[in-house]
Amino acid sequence: MAPDQLERSRRARVLTLSTVAFTLLFAVWLMLGMLSIKIKPELGLTDGQLYNLTIAAILSGSLLRFNFGIWTDRYGGRRVMTALILFTVLPTLMVSRVTSYGELLVCALLFGVAGNSFSVGIAWNAAWYPKEKQGTALGVFGAGNVGASVTKLFGPLLIAAVPAAGFFGGAIPGGWRFIPVVYAVLLVVLAAAVWFLSPREDRTPARGRPFSELAAPMRHAKVWEFSLHYTVVFGAYVALSGVLPQFYFAHYGHELAASLNLNAQLVADFDTIKTLKGEAHASYMAANPDVRADLDYLSKWVGFLAAVCFVFPASLLRPLGGWLSDRFGPQVVMAIVFWGMLASGIALSLPLGLGVWAFTAALFVLGVGMGVGKASVYKMIPDHFPREVGAVGGLVGLLGALGGVLLPLAWSAIPGSTFAALLALTVLSTAWFTASTARGRKAAAVPAQQAA
Q1: How many Cβ atoms from other residues are within 10 Å of residue 229's Cβ?
Q2: CA–CA separation, 90 vs 378, rounded Å?
Q3: Closest by alpha carbon to 421, among 343, 335, 340, 345?
Q4: Third-level CATH fold of 3-200+214-440
């Protein structure tokens, strides 16, 4: 094989394996979002406890992103990604055995480490791809965000297909507990694929460089600006992906059940049903099997809407965002993204009384902006910091993902502020971006004026 063909083959393997790994690890990271519809009544959890579980997983998948970015640049993505996958296997499997809120919280803290796979993949691909192709490559990798929809789409189908008693006398549990078992098996297979199929001679651009040199870009305002932008397009995406199933169920479940012509008793008693927990929930469902069947059907629709109308555009359009950024420049793309997110954010925040379908349409526009915008932010990083992509990308990912923690906290502290808080954050980010872009144009114009 010719050297250039060999190089393209190695790049393709890195991109393919890292994207598949990121997709599965992202699905694991956010699996409680959809499963919470079943977990909440079975374990008798409160809304506050659900928020705590979401925050625990997001924090665990965020706080080490800077470290994982540097480790990848120093030791290579093959080693770091494989180790991360293997670490995630056991806590993912243990989710299938939890019997209390405390046990589930510990599992969330441990399997949540999967979220750091983003920093690993960004640094790994940036080390293999030339600058003129990095936007597209990082956009393709980032499309692994679609993993947030895996549980939403396939979880309800598997739960319905698998016997409630599970298999082999309960050794493999049924119901929602079957999902983490499937993920654990897939993680083991994935770890083997990454280790044996990725290039053995990996790229390590930070090997031998001192930590102080790698951390030097943190003094630049651009790093913090990019972090705020990424909070808007990614941190908010993570937060919404985690709470959307419950949001749809709580705010639009009754309307959706009525529009789907589901069981009349389910429609009539919906407000009561959604407050039932523990034994009360189990007793009601046992006494009303038709309601239970239609409630499962409603859960499928909730997962479908959250996935197709938000998670899909916010994930699968990331390659498009990378390509557009390579073609027209990330600043142009980000300007358009911000205007679209501001318009949809206003529609979602104001008390307009949106029905479920109008709400879903506005949510789709918001998702499109996030999908394109995530790639644009990460195209700007190698443009400004070509030798510190792992460190800068890790920090931007860390701070951006922390938005996924702060937003749920704001929402729980101020009921009804879900989209208003996101709109306020988008306004702030847009203002910083506009001011920074104006300063950049002014600075670029000075030499031309002097030359004249």
Answers
A1: 27
A2: 32
A3: 345
A4: Growth Hormone; Chain: A; (1.20.1250)
